Protein backbone atom coordinates (compact mmCIF):
# COMPACT_ATOMS: atom_id res chain seq x y z
CA UNK A 1 0.00 0.00 0.00
CA UNK A 2 0.99 3.62 -0.48
CA UNK A 3 -0.13 6.85 1.13
CA UNK A 4 -2.58 8.91 -0.88
CA UNK A 5 -1.14 11.97 -2.59
CA UNK A 6 -2.78 14.98 -0.93
CA UNK A 7 -3.79 18.15 -2.73
CA UNK A 8 -2.22 21.47 -1.83
CA UNK A 9 -5.34 22.60 0.02
CA UNK A 10 -5.54 19.35 1.99
CA UNK A 11 -1.96 19.94 3.12
CA UNK A 12 -2.83 23.57 3.89
CA UNK A 13 -5.84 22.59 5.99
CA UNK A 14 -3.84 19.89 7.81
CA UNK A 15 -1.37 22.52 9.02
CA UNK A 16 -3.77 25.45 9.48
CA UNK A 17 -3.74 25.15 13.26
CA UNK A 18 -0.11 26.20 13.18
CA UNK A 19 -1.27 29.69 12.20
CA UNK A 20 -2.92 30.11 15.59
CA UNK A 21 -0.11 28.42 17.50
CA UNK A 22 2.46 30.69 15.93
CA UNK A 23 0.34 33.79 16.40
CA UNK A 24 0.40 33.10 20.13
CA UNK A 25 4.07 32.16 19.99
CA UNK A 26 4.88 35.42 18.17
CA UNK A 27 3.01 37.50 20.73
CA UNK A 28 5.11 35.79 23.38
CA UNK A 29 8.42 36.18 21.52
CA UNK A 30 7.97 39.85 20.69
CA UNK A 31 6.47 40.98 23.98
CA UNK A 32 7.40 38.66 26.87
CA UNK A 33 10.66 40.50 27.64
CA UNK A 34 8.84 43.83 27.48
CA UNK A 35 6.07 42.59 29.81
CA UNK A 36 8.54 41.10 32.27
CA UNK A 37 10.49 44.39 32.32
CA UNK A 38 7.25 46.28 33.03
CA UNK A 39 6.68 43.92 35.96
CA UNK A 40 10.17 44.70 37.30
CA UNK A 41 12.75 42.42 35.64
CA UNK A 42 16.21 43.89 34.86
CA UNK A 43 17.75 43.42 31.40
CA UNK A 44 20.36 40.92 32.57
CA UNK A 45 17.63 38.83 34.27
CA UNK A 46 15.50 38.37 31.16
CA UNK A 47 17.23 35.24 29.90
CA UNK A 48 16.75 33.60 33.32
CA UNK A 49 12.99 34.10 33.11
CA UNK A 50 13.01 32.84 29.53
CA UNK A 51 14.67 29.59 30.60
CA UNK A 52 11.15 28.43 31.47
CA UNK A 53 10.31 28.13 27.77
CA UNK A 54 13.01 25.65 26.66
CA UNK A 55 12.72 23.70 29.90
CA UNK A 56 9.06 23.08 29.11
CA UNK A 57 10.03 21.91 25.64
CA UNK A 58 12.69 19.60 27.02
CA UNK A 59 10.21 17.96 29.38
CA UNK A 60 6.95 18.08 27.46
CA UNK A 61 7.70 17.35 23.81
CA UNK A 62 9.30 13.88 24.09
CA UNK A 63 6.53 12.78 26.45
CA UNK A 64 3.81 14.13 24.16
CA UNK A 65 5.56 12.58 21.14
CA UNK A 66 5.70 9.21 22.88
CA UNK A 67 2.06 9.21 23.93
CA UNK A 68 0.79 10.60 20.62
CA UNK A 69 2.46 7.64 18.89
CA UNK A 70 0.46 5.35 21.21
CA UNK A 71 -2.86 7.24 21.02
CA UNK A 72 -5.73 6.16 18.83
CA UNK A 73 -9.37 6.88 19.60
CA UNK A 74 -12.51 8.51 18.30
CA UNK A 75 -10.71 11.87 17.97
CA UNK A 76 -7.66 10.42 16.22
CA UNK A 77 -3.98 10.08 17.04
CA UNK A 78 -2.45 13.56 17.10
CA UNK A 79 -5.57 15.75 17.16
CA UNK A 80 -6.48 15.39 20.87
CA UNK A 81 -3.13 16.96 21.75
CA UNK A 82 -3.78 19.93 19.44
CA UNK A 83 -6.99 20.77 21.28
CA UNK A 84 -5.67 20.36 24.84
CA UNK A 85 -2.58 22.42 24.02
CA UNK A 86 -4.65 25.17 22.41
CA UNK A 87 -7.00 25.51 25.38
CA UNK A 88 -4.16 25.71 27.93
CA UNK A 89 -2.13 28.11 25.78
CA UNK A 90 -5.14 30.40 25.40
CA UNK A 91 -5.47 30.62 29.18
CA UNK A 92 -1.82 31.65 29.44
CA UNK A 93 -2.19 34.23 26.67
CA UNK A 94 -5.13 35.91 28.37
CA UNK A 95 -3.60 35.98 31.84
CA UNK A 96 0.11 36.79 31.27
CA UNK A 97 -0.26 40.51 30.44
CA UNK A 98 -2.83 40.82 33.22
CA UNK A 99 -0.68 39.15 35.88
CA UNK A 100 -1.00 42.25 38.08
CA UNK A 101 -4.58 41.13 38.81
CA UNK A 102 -3.07 38.55 41.16
CA UNK A 103 -0.80 40.96 43.00
CA UNK A 104 -2.72 40.34 46.24
CA UNK A 105 -1.45 36.75 46.19
CA UNK A 106 1.92 36.89 44.42
CA UNK A 107 4.18 39.53 42.82
CA UNK A 108 3.11 40.25 39.24
CA UNK A 109 6.57 39.26 37.97
CA UNK A 110 6.18 35.76 39.43
CA UNK A 111 2.68 35.35 38.01
CA UNK A 112 3.84 36.62 34.61
CA UNK A 113 6.69 34.12 34.59
CA UNK A 114 4.22 31.39 35.58
CA UNK A 115 1.91 32.27 32.70
CA UNK A 116 4.93 32.19 30.37
CA UNK A 117 5.58 28.64 31.60
CA UNK A 118 1.96 27.59 31.00
CA UNK A 119 1.96 29.12 27.52
CA UNK A 120 5.17 27.47 26.45
CA UNK A 121 4.27 24.07 27.86
CA UNK A 122 0.94 24.28 26.04
CA UNK A 123 2.47 25.38 22.73
CA UNK A 124 4.76 22.35 23.02
CA UNK A 125 1.80 20.03 23.66
CA UNK A 126 0.27 21.16 20.36
CA UNK A 127 3.34 21.82 18.24
CA UNK A 128 5.23 18.53 17.94
CA UNK A 129 2.15 16.40 17.15
CA UNK A 130 1.59 18.82 14.25
CA UNK A 131 5.06 18.05 12.89
CA UNK A 132 4.49 14.33 13.41
CA UNK A 133 1.16 14.61 11.54
CA UNK A 134 3.01 15.80 8.43
CA UNK A 135 5.29 12.77 8.66
CA UNK A 136 2.26 10.50 9.21
CA UNK A 137 0.10 11.74 6.35
CA UNK A 138 2.49 12.68 3.56
CA UNK A 139 4.49 10.60 1.13
CA UNK A 140 8.24 11.14 0.85
CA UNK A 141 7.88 13.23 -2.32
CA UNK A 142 5.45 15.61 -0.54
CA UNK A 143 7.25 16.09 2.76
CA UNK A 144 9.30 19.12 1.73
CA UNK A 145 6.09 20.75 0.46
CA UNK A 146 4.29 19.76 3.66
CA UNK A 147 6.85 21.29 5.99
CA UNK A 148 7.12 24.34 3.71
CA UNK A 149 3.34 24.92 3.85
CA UNK A 150 3.56 24.52 7.61
CA UNK A 151 6.35 27.10 7.64
CA UNK A 152 4.28 29.48 5.53
CA UNK A 153 1.36 29.26 7.96
CA UNK A 154 3.77 29.75 10.85
CA UNK A 155 4.96 32.88 9.07
CA UNK A 156 1.48 34.29 8.44
CA UNK A 157 0.43 33.58 12.03
CA UNK A 158 3.58 35.19 13.38
CA UNK A 159 3.02 38.29 11.26
CA UNK A 160 -0.46 38.69 12.72
CA UNK A 161 0.84 38.21 16.26
CA UNK A 162 3.87 40.45 15.83
CA UNK A 163 2.06 43.35 14.16
CA UNK A 164 -1.13 43.29 16.21
CA UNK A 165 0.01 45.54 19.13
CA UNK A 166 1.40 48.13 16.68
CA UNK A 167 -1.76 47.98 14.53
CA UNK A 168 -4.11 48.37 17.49
CA UNK A 169 -2.23 51.43 18.71
CA UNK A 170 -1.51 53.18 15.41
CA UNK A 171 -4.56 52.22 13.35
CA UNK A 172 -7.28 51.82 15.98
CA UNK A 173 -6.00 54.30 18.58
CA UNK A 174 -5.78 51.70 21.39
CA UNK A 175 -3.49 53.11 24.09
CA UNK A 176 0.10 51.83 24.46
CA UNK A 177 0.75 53.96 27.55
CA UNK A 178 1.74 52.28 30.77
CA UNK A 179 1.69 53.24 34.41
CA UNK A 180 3.96 51.68 37.00
CA UNK A 181 3.67 47.89 36.74
CA UNK A 182 0.77 47.95 34.26
CA UNK A 183 0.88 46.46 30.74
CA UNK A 184 -0.47 48.74 27.97
CA UNK A 185 -4.01 48.14 26.76
CA UNK A 186 -2.93 47.36 23.19
CA UNK A 187 -0.82 44.46 24.48
CA UNK A 188 -3.58 43.05 26.69
CA UNK A 189 -6.11 43.16 23.85
CA UNK A 190 -3.59 41.61 21.41
CA UNK A 191 -3.08 38.61 23.68
CA UNK A 192 -6.85 38.08 24.04
CA UNK A 193 -7.35 38.20 20.25
CA UNK A 194 -4.46 35.76 19.83
CA UNK A 195 -6.11 33.31 22.22
CA UNK A 196 -9.37 33.34 20.25
CA UNK A 197 -7.65 32.83 16.88
CA UNK A 198 -5.58 29.98 18.34
CA UNK A 199 -8.69 28.02 19.34
CA UNK A 200 -10.48 28.65 16.02
CA UNK A 201 -7.52 27.63 13.83
CA UNK A 202 -6.96 24.40 15.78
CA UNK A 203 -10.63 23.47 15.37
CA UNK A 204 -10.40 24.03 11.60
CA UNK A 205 -7.55 21.50 11.36
CA UNK A 206 -9.26 19.01 13.67
CA UNK A 207 -12.56 19.06 11.79
CA UNK A 208 -11.04 18.98 8.30
CA UNK A 209 -8.18 16.47 8.56
CA UNK A 210 -8.28 12.68 8.47
CA UNK A 211 -5.52 10.67 10.14
CA UNK A 212 -4.27 7.23 9.14
CA UNK A 213 -4.88 4.52 11.71
CA UNK A 214 -1.90 2.63 13.19
CA UNK A 215 -2.87 -0.39 11.07
CA UNK A 216 -2.80 1.68 7.89
CA UNK A 217 0.56 3.22 8.78
CA UNK A 218 2.01 -0.23 9.42
CA UNK A 219 1.01 -1.36 5.95
CA UNK A 220 2.86 1.36 4.06
CA UNK A 221 6.07 0.48 2.34
CA UNK A 222 7.79 3.45 3.96
CA UNK A 223 7.96 1.39 7.16
CA UNK A 224 10.65 -0.69 5.50
CA UNK A 225 12.30 2.02 3.38
CA UNK A 226 14.25 5.16 4.34
CA UNK A 227 14.64 4.08 7.96
CA UNK A 228 17.98 3.64 9.63
CA UNK A 229 16.61 1.94 12.72
CA UNK A 230 16.68 -1.83 13.02
CA UNK A 231 13.64 -4.07 13.36
CA UNK A 232 14.02 -4.19 17.13
CA UNK A 233 13.81 -0.41 17.26
CA UNK A 234 10.33 -0.31 15.78
CA UNK A 235 8.69 -2.76 18.16
CA UNK A 236 5.98 -1.40 20.41
CA UNK A 237 7.40 0.06 23.60
CA UNK A 238 5.95 -0.71 26.98
CA UNK A 239 7.42 2.12 29.03
CA UNK A 240 7.84 5.87 28.78
CA UNK A 241 11.41 5.33 29.98
CA UNK A 242 12.14 3.67 26.63
CA UNK A 243 12.48 7.21 25.29
CA UNK A 244 16.04 7.10 26.66
CA UNK A 245 16.72 3.92 24.70
CA UNK A 246 15.33 5.59 21.57
CA UNK A 247 17.62 8.54 22.24
CA UNK A 248 20.67 6.25 22.27
CA UNK A 249 19.56 4.60 19.00
CA UNK A 250 18.67 7.77 17.13
CA UNK A 251 19.49 7.75 13.40
CA UNK A 252 22.86 9.08 12.23
CA UNK A 253 21.16 11.88 10.33
CA UNK A 254 19.53 13.11 13.54
CA UNK A 255 22.89 13.17 15.32
CA UNK A 256 24.42 15.21 12.52
CA UNK A 257 21.48 17.62 12.42
CA UNK A 258 21.71 18.10 16.19
CA UNK A 259 24.74 20.40 15.85
CA UNK A 260 23.08 22.46 13.14
CA UNK A 261 20.01 22.81 15.35
CA UNK A 262 22.12 23.71 18.38
CA UNK A 263 23.70 26.79 16.83
CA UNK A 264 20.54 27.78 14.94
CA UNK A 265 18.41 27.87 18.09
CA UNK A 266 21.13 29.35 20.28
CA UNK A 267 21.05 32.29 17.89
CA UNK A 268 17.27 32.51 17.73
CA UNK A 269 16.89 32.53 21.51
CA UNK A 270 19.36 35.38 21.90
CA UNK A 271 17.47 37.41 19.31
CA UNK A 272 14.06 36.81 20.91
CA UNK A 273 15.20 37.64 24.44
CA UNK A 274 17.37 40.67 23.81
CA UNK A 275 15.88 42.30 20.68
CA UNK A 276 13.73 44.81 22.59
CA UNK A 277 16.45 46.15 24.94
CA UNK A 278 19.05 45.98 22.14
CA UNK A 279 17.02 48.10 19.71
CA UNK A 280 15.84 50.45 22.47
CA UNK A 281 19.47 51.11 23.42
CA UNK A 282 21.28 50.92 20.08
CA UNK A 283 18.73 52.56 17.76
CA UNK A 284 16.55 54.67 20.07
CA UNK A 285 19.48 55.74 22.28
CA UNK A 286 17.80 54.82 25.58
CA UNK A 287 19.73 53.86 28.73
CA UNK A 288 19.61 50.19 29.69
CA UNK A 289 17.66 51.09 32.83
CA UNK A 290 14.69 52.49 30.84
CA UNK A 291 11.75 50.08 30.70
CA UNK A 292 8.71 52.34 31.01
CA UNK A 293 9.11 55.53 28.98
CA UNK A 294 6.91 56.36 25.99
CA UNK A 295 9.91 55.92 23.69
CA UNK A 296 10.60 52.49 25.18
CA UNK A 297 7.00 51.44 24.42
CA UNK A 298 7.45 52.75 20.86
CA UNK A 299 10.62 50.66 20.57
CA UNK A 300 8.69 47.62 21.81
CA UNK A 301 5.95 48.18 19.23
CA UNK A 302 8.62 48.53 16.50
CA UNK A 303 10.14 45.20 17.55
CA UNK A 304 6.73 43.71 16.78
CA UNK A 305 6.90 45.22 13.29
CA UNK A 306 10.42 43.86 12.74
CA UNK A 307 9.46 40.40 13.97
CA UNK A 308 6.45 40.55 11.68
CA UNK A 309 8.73 41.41 8.75
CA UNK A 310 10.98 38.41 9.23
CA UNK A 311 7.97 36.15 9.65
CA UNK A 312 6.30 37.58 6.53
CA UNK A 313 9.49 36.99 4.55
CA UNK A 314 9.65 33.45 5.91
CA UNK A 315 6.05 32.77 4.87
CA UNK A 316 6.74 33.62 1.22
CA UNK A 317 10.24 32.17 1.17
CA UNK A 318 8.79 28.90 2.47
CA UNK A 319 6.88 28.47 -0.81
CA UNK A 320 10.14 28.82 -2.72
CA UNK A 321 12.05 26.31 -0.59
CA UNK A 322 10.77 23.13 -2.34
CA UNK A 323 11.80 24.50 -5.74
CA UNK A 324 15.19 25.71 -4.53
CA UNK A 325 15.81 22.40 -2.77
CA UNK A 326 14.91 20.50 -5.93
CA UNK A 327 17.55 22.47 -7.85
CA UNK A 328 20.45 22.57 -5.38
CA UNK A 329 19.50 20.07 -2.66
CA UNK A 330 18.07 20.50 0.82
CA UNK A 331 21.44 20.77 2.52
CA UNK A 332 22.75 23.56 0.30
CA UNK A 333 19.40 25.36 0.55
CA UNK A 334 19.55 25.27 4.35
CA UNK A 335 23.20 26.31 4.55
CA UNK A 336 22.67 29.29 2.24
CA UNK A 337 19.58 30.44 4.14
CA UNK A 338 21.39 30.26 7.50
CA UNK A 339 24.34 32.20 6.11
CA UNK A 340 22.07 35.00 4.85
CA UNK A 341 20.31 35.08 8.23
CA UNK A 342 23.62 35.39 10.05
CA UNK A 343 24.60 38.35 7.90
CA UNK A 344 21.20 39.90 8.60
CA UNK A 345 21.70 39.78 12.37
CA UNK A 346 25.26 41.11 12.13
CA UNK A 347 24.08 44.01 9.93
CA UNK A 348 21.87 45.37 12.74
CA UNK A 349 24.95 46.91 14.34
CA UNK A 350 25.65 49.21 11.38
CA UNK A 351 22.10 50.21 10.45
CA UNK A 352 21.58 53.99 10.77
CA UNK A 353 17.92 54.01 11.88
CA UNK A 354 14.97 51.79 12.71
CA UNK A 355 13.72 51.60 9.11
CA UNK A 356 16.97 50.07 7.84
CA UNK A 357 16.46 47.24 10.31
CA UNK A 358 13.77 45.95 7.95
CA UNK A 359 16.58 44.97 5.56
CA UNK A 360 18.27 43.00 8.34
CA UNK A 361 15.03 41.18 9.07
CA UNK A 362 14.70 40.01 5.46
CA UNK A 363 17.81 37.89 5.95
CA UNK A 364 16.58 36.63 9.31
CA UNK A 365 13.27 35.66 7.70
CA UNK A 366 14.98 33.50 5.09
CA UNK A 367 16.92 31.67 7.80
CA UNK A 368 13.80 31.26 9.94
CA UNK A 369 11.83 29.68 7.08
CA UNK A 370 14.60 27.20 6.42
CA UNK A 371 15.07 26.37 10.13
CA UNK A 372 11.38 25.50 10.39
CA UNK A 373 11.28 23.34 7.26
CA UNK A 374 14.56 21.89 6.03
CA UNK A 375 15.78 20.01 9.14
CA UNK A 376 12.40 18.29 9.51
CA UNK A 377 12.21 17.40 5.82
CA UNK A 378 15.71 15.88 6.07
CA UNK A 379 14.93 14.11 9.34
CA UNK A 380 11.58 12.60 8.30
CA UNK A 381 13.27 10.44 5.67
CA UNK A 382 15.58 8.82 8.21
CA UNK A 383 13.06 7.56 10.78
CA UNK A 384 10.28 4.98 10.76
CA UNK A 385 6.69 6.30 10.67
CA UNK A 386 5.84 4.08 13.68
CA UNK A 387 8.08 6.25 15.86
CA UNK A 388 7.61 9.58 14.08
CA UNK A 389 6.13 11.26 17.17
CA UNK A 390 8.72 10.16 19.70
CA UNK A 391 11.65 10.98 17.42
CA UNK A 392 10.21 14.39 16.57
CA UNK A 393 9.96 14.94 20.32
CA UNK A 394 13.53 13.76 20.92
CA UNK A 395 14.70 16.01 18.08
CA UNK A 396 13.34 18.89 20.12
CA UNK A 397 16.16 18.27 22.64
CA UNK A 398 18.48 19.92 20.15
CA UNK A 399 16.20 22.96 20.03
CA UNK A 400 15.71 23.45 23.75
CA UNK A 401 19.18 22.57 25.08
CA UNK A 402 20.90 25.48 23.27
CA UNK A 403 18.15 27.80 24.49
CA UNK A 404 18.69 26.64 28.08
CA UNK A 405 22.43 27.24 27.74
CA UNK A 406 21.81 30.71 26.28
CA UNK A 407 19.31 31.41 29.06
CA UNK A 408 21.93 30.60 31.68
CA UNK A 409 24.85 32.51 30.17
CA UNK A 410 23.12 35.18 28.08
CA UNK A 411 22.24 37.53 30.94
CA UNK A 412 25.69 37.42 32.59
CA UNK A 413 27.33 37.96 29.19
CA UNK A 414 25.23 41.07 28.59
CA UNK A 415 25.89 42.45 32.06
CA UNK A 416 29.58 41.64 32.54
CA UNK A 417 31.08 41.03 29.10
CA UNK A 418 28.96 43.42 27.03
CA UNK A 419 28.59 46.23 29.59
CA UNK A 420 24.76 45.97 29.57
CA UNK A 421 24.77 46.64 25.81
CA UNK A 422 22.29 44.05 24.55
CA UNK A 423 23.18 44.71 20.89
CA UNK A 424 26.17 42.42 21.31
CA UNK A 425 23.84 39.55 22.18
CA UNK A 426 22.31 39.98 18.72
CA UNK A 427 25.76 39.92 17.13
CA UNK A 428 26.51 36.70 19.00
CA UNK A 429 23.33 35.26 17.51
CA UNK A 430 24.52 36.22 14.03
CA UNK A 431 27.83 34.40 14.51
CA UNK A 432 25.92 31.37 15.78
CA UNK A 433 23.89 31.26 12.54
CA UNK A 434 27.09 31.30 10.48
CA UNK A 435 28.50 28.35 12.44
CA UNK A 436 25.25 26.42 11.87
CA UNK A 437 25.50 27.10 8.14
CA UNK A 438 28.98 25.57 8.01
CA UNK A 439 27.88 22.46 9.93
CA UNK A 440 25.13 21.60 7.43
CA UNK A 441 27.75 20.10 5.12
CA UNK A 442 28.31 17.27 7.66
CA UNK A 443 24.68 16.06 7.44
CA UNK A 444 23.70 12.91 5.49
CA UNK A 445 20.38 13.48 3.71
CA UNK A 446 19.08 10.01 2.86
CA UNK A 447 16.17 10.69 0.51
CA UNK A 448 16.99 14.10 -0.95
CA UNK A 449 15.93 14.53 -4.56
CA UNK A 450 19.27 16.17 -5.33
CA UNK A 451 22.28 14.39 -3.84
CA UNK A 452 25.00 16.76 -2.72
TrEMBL record:
The keyword Magnesium does not apply. It is a multi-pass membrane protein. It comes from Mariniflexile litorale. The lineage of its organism: Bacteria, Pseudomonadati, Bacteroidota, Flavobacteriia, Flavobacteriales. Its main location: membrane. Coiled coil: none annotated. Keywords: Membrane, Transmembrane, Transmembrane helix, Transport. It is found in: Membrane. The chain crosses the membrane at residues 48-68, 80-96, 102-123, 144-167, 187-207, 257-279, 299-321, 333-350, 356-378, 390-409, 421-441. InterPro entries: MFS (IPR011701), MFS_dom (IPR020846), MFS_trans_sf (IPR036259). PANTHER family: SOLUTE CARRIER FAMILY 45 MEMBER 3 ISOFORM X1, SUGAR TRANSPORTER. One of its GO terms (cellular component) is membrane. This is MFS transporter. GO terms for molecular function: transmembrane transporter activity. Residues 253-452 form the Major facilitator superfamily (MFS) profile domain.
